[in-house]
Amino acid sequence: MELCGHATLAAAHTLFSTDLVNSNTVEFATLSGILTAKKVPYVKTMNDSNSQNGEAQECYFIELDFPAAPTADLNFSEVSLILKALGVSSVVDMKITTTCEDIFVVLPSAKSVADLQPKFDEMKKCPGRRGIIVSGLAPPESGFDFYSRFFCPKFGVNEDPVCGSAYCALATYWRQKLGKCDFVAYAASPRSGILNIHLDEQNQRVQLRGKAITVMQGSLLV
Predict the structure, then answer these.
(1) Which of 41, 52, 79, 150 is deepest in the core (most CB within 10 A)?
(2) Is the CB of residue 146 less than 8 Å from the CB of residue 135?
(3) Quick one: fold of 71-199?
(4) φ and ψ of 103, to 5 deg
(5) Which residues of 138-180 form beta strands (DSSP E)?
């Protein structure tokens, strides 16, 4: 794959948490070029339970540096297939990303994003090389800028809980609509997730900041 946020985040977390690198920054050589991950310390609050197996952990975010993904207008002759797959009658906007060729759909509200129940078999018939990004403006009282979900049944993943690469397009789109470069985004999948995002317009890079935890460990005998 050209770009995989999960793999980059997991690899960086493992390197940092096991002290396999003596640095706050690591670089990965990928099919999307050099991707950078760095540790960003944060102030621990009283209600922040940042512990694992009863042991106190170092408090930091992991910031991933990814290439921005522009969007382009979609061929509207294919809109009906997408509406049928999503199970909706109307949308606010519809684009296609110029990198992964994801379909990018904006719904009328954050609630419509969260309540969406797509038809995955129909999604496989939709245009685009990879998946469908769905997003909507968040209500002001939520503390978020926008909601999103990402569906990729063509690759055997009906829904990605928090798709890092999708935010490369989400950041560029919402920059145009909201007039700012810093966002707090909510991934409205059943598992859910929260991301802090910065768009570096000059260099066309997207910084995604969040946390990771180790859920399983094992040994490999060779």
Answers:
(1) 150
(2) yes
(3) Diaminopimelate Epimerase; Chain A, domain 1 (3.10.310)
(4) -75, 135
(5) 146-152, 157-160
